[in-house]
TrEMBL record:
Domain Glucose-methanol-choline oxidoreductase C-terminal, first and last residues per copy: 360-497
Gene Ontology molecular functions: flavin adenine dinucleotide binding; oxidoreductase activity, acting on CH-OH group of donors
PANTHER family: GLUCOSE-METHANOL-CHOLINE GMC OXIDOREDUCTASE, OXIDASE (CODA), PUTATIVE (AFU_ORTHOLOGUE AFUA_8G04090)-RELATED
Organism encoding this protein: Streptomyces fuscichromogenes
Matching InterPro entries: FAD/NAD-bd_sf, GMC_OxRdtase, GMC_OxRdtase_N, GMC_OxRtase_C
Residues binding FAD, per UniProt: 85
Cofactor(s) of this protein: FAD
Gene3D superfamilies: 3.30.410.40, FAD/NAD(P)-binding domain
Pfam families: GMC_oxred_C, GMC_oxred_N
Family note: Belongs to the GMC oxidoreductase family.
Name of protein: Oxidoreductase
Amino acid sequence: MPHVHEYDYVVIGGGTAGSVIASRLTEDPDVTVAVIEGGPSDVGRDDVLTLRRWTGLLGGELDYDYPTTEQPRGNSHIRHSRARVLGGCSSHNTLIAFKPLPSDWDEWEEAGARGWGAVPMEAYYARLLNNIVPVDEKDRNAVARDFVDAARQALGVPRVEGFNRRPFTEGAGFFDLAYHPETNKRSSASVAYLHPVLDRRPNLHLLLETWAYRLELAGSRAEGVHVRTKDGAELLIRARNEVVLCAGAVDSPRLLLHSGTGPARDLEALGIPVAHDLPGVGENLLDHPESVIVWETHGPIPENSATDSDAGLFVRRDPGHPGPDLMFHFYQVPFTDNPERLGYERPAHGVSMTPNIPKPRSRGRLYLTSADPSVKPALDFRYFTDEDDHDGRTLVDGIRIAREIARTEPLAGWLKREVCPGPEILGDAELSEYARRAAHTVYHPAGTCRMGAADDELAVVDPELRIRGLDGIRVADASVFPAMPAVNPMVGVLMVGERAVDLLKGGA
Ligand SMILES: Cc1cc2nc3c(=O)[nH]c(=O)nc-3n(C[C@H](O)[C@H](O)[C@H](O)COP(=O)(O)OP(=O)(O)OC[C@H]3O[C@@H](n4cnc5c(N)ncnc54)[C@H](O)[C@@H]3O)c2cc1C
């Protein structure tokens, strides 16, 4: 028999949304919360807390590192980094901080997420505790400034100072980041929500390096979760009130599936006893894929930066589209990890532009290949498989637009030559082939426990984030996104966390 512990709430995953929820719930000293977190603490870890060291975490000991399945129209070598540390991916990412656009929230509402429209969601942004500020002047690299000026010149888009100030459809500028510019320290979910209270709240219990592997279900009620600690002890952590699943877009559906909650036929085929037939679990796998175009520069780039990717561009090609339909990150480094696999070389000095698909139409699927909970799930993003090839065409347009910007001063003066795809690659088909094969992810998986109307059979959670057909359990993380926001998703996840707290308290 496992040892049993009981708390009012059990939060599974002390990541981006989980940190918000655990912090807010324990503001009431009479409420006890256990956080089950697979990774260690981030307190005192400069390798985690220093924002600019983010690339050092990719593929390391704090990364679950999920592979993708074969992608016939994309890049089959993409690895999906997912952070194994307190704060989750907000302890690992670049902390580019975009409030989702009003059109993004309204799209959720139209998809059946009643109450999640732009107007009610605005209040949750105001509650966020993260230090969201524009990239500091000292971190604004000369080549990134010249990228912004060249993009304005070439495309006639406005310069944007503060992308979160008002909704936009187009613009070039430096991002807002959740960081402390004076030290380059992260203002992750854990730093902003948990660090200030860790030693002051006896009602907040962190179970670190502890893995949740199966929910405890009694009929349709979730009573708790089975976990294994770092030392191999098996515990049952019970929730008097509710279990809140915040393990992220890969691990939330994974845990549900291993608990017998998912498409019955798939579970039966693997010999997992079906507890609750819920066909949407793992469906609707979304991401923001992007490709890359790289230039060699005449010499080294100045050193100063916050993340090495501090500025970007949004374009709206289709005037009827509710928001931007093409985005770029500008990297102050030659980002050739994927092109090198296609035979390209990394120049000693260089910069990159990365055309990104804000509203991808391809939809993928996450599924198990084994009943063994330690086997990683399969992630089939089905990149670039949408019927009209909207996604592939967006990248081709992006490369052409990137070249226009590169030809324009003041950026043009920095650039010696286009390294990849290379100036001889001009036709639509060739550009598309390169762009899809060299594509990478910006690590935004979402949507695998999609929220929808209570009578939507393929929805996993209802608009109150309750798992359809179960009691005592909600999901609150990137997996509940019904659709991808046009912008980077972390702030949206933090806002899901804040709203989840209202729902748990019965106040929304
Ligand atoms: C490298 C990288 C760069 C990114 N850059 C940006 C960016 O600049 N801007 C932006 O908006 N978004 C960015 N993102 C995406 C963004 O960080 C995520 O969308 C968001 O943080 C996801 O939050 P979450 O709460 O859904 O999951 P997470 O933050 O991943 O939290 C899940 C937590 O659950 C824990 N966990 C999982 N399974 C279990 C289990 N079974 N038992 C116990 N614990 C478990 C994990 O350890 C983790 O702490 C980036 C992501 C990455 C990886």
